[in-house]
Amino acid sequence: MPSKQPLSPYPVIDADPTFGRVVRYMRPSDYATWAAAAAAGPAAFWGLERVDPSRASTRSAMKLVGFLGVSAGFLLAYQRSSFRFMGLSENASEAKKDHAELSARVKAGQPIYGETDLTDYVQSVAARNSTWSQLKLSVMPWFNLVNHNYHGVDTSKYGEQK
């Protein structure tokens, strides 16, 4: 069953990109967002500690807030990069990079979305579980870690013959 196409202002590159592709296609602005979110948690905690100091040591609490800031920053950067794959934000440079990368795979005779040992049924289950999961990363972080052929785009644009 084909993936539902969203009403998006930009072309859909991949409705279910793998984790590695999303991280590889991150822009410098995504890394800046990640760093800002990572610094915001400890900065806010430090500021609140200056306003109303506690009597206990805040060292372990600062470590926890720092870890949560880094984690939240990564999820935010991942989601921003995923939105470009789904066509929900401007994605011209990603579209060019995607076309060049996947066309080269086709010309080299490699599978377009990578090799896998999974059966078609298991691949379709993995795709149904992770497609559009980037929209709800705040509820439950779920990443596509499986190579499959269910990405919601027409692969003939890469030169692949069906």
User: What is the domain total for the residues?
Assistant: 1
Tell me what portion of residues adopts beta-strand conformation: under 5%
Question: What shape does the CA trace take?
Answer: elongated
Based on DSSP secondary structure assignment, what is the total number of beta strands?
A: 0
The stretches of 5 or more residues where confidence is low (pLDDT under 50) are none
- Report the total helices: 5
Fraction of residues in helices? 40-55%
Largest sheet: none
Question: Averaging pLDDT over every residue, what do you get?
Answer: 87
Structural category is: mainly alpha
Distance between termini? Answer: 17 Å
Radius of gyration (Å): 20 Å
Order of helices and strands: HHHHH
Domain NADH-ubiquinone oxidoreductase 21kDa subunit C-terminal fungi: 101-160
Keywords: Membrane, Transmembrane, Transmembrane helix
Organism: Filobasidium floriforme
Domain NADH-ubiquinone oxidoreductase 21kDa subunit N-terminal: 8-90
Overview of the molecule:
The chain contains 5 helices and no strands. It has helices at residues 19-24, 28-51, 59-85, 92-107, 120-130. The two termini are 17 Å apart. Keywords: Membrane, Transmembrane, Transmembrane helix. This is NADH-ubiquinone oxidoreductase 21 kDa subunit.
What are its keywords?
single chain; 162 residues; mainly alpha; 0% strand; elongated
Write the layout of secondary structure elements.
Blueprint: H1 19-24, H2 28-51, H3 59-85, H4 92-107, H5 120-130
Helix pairs in contact: 2-3
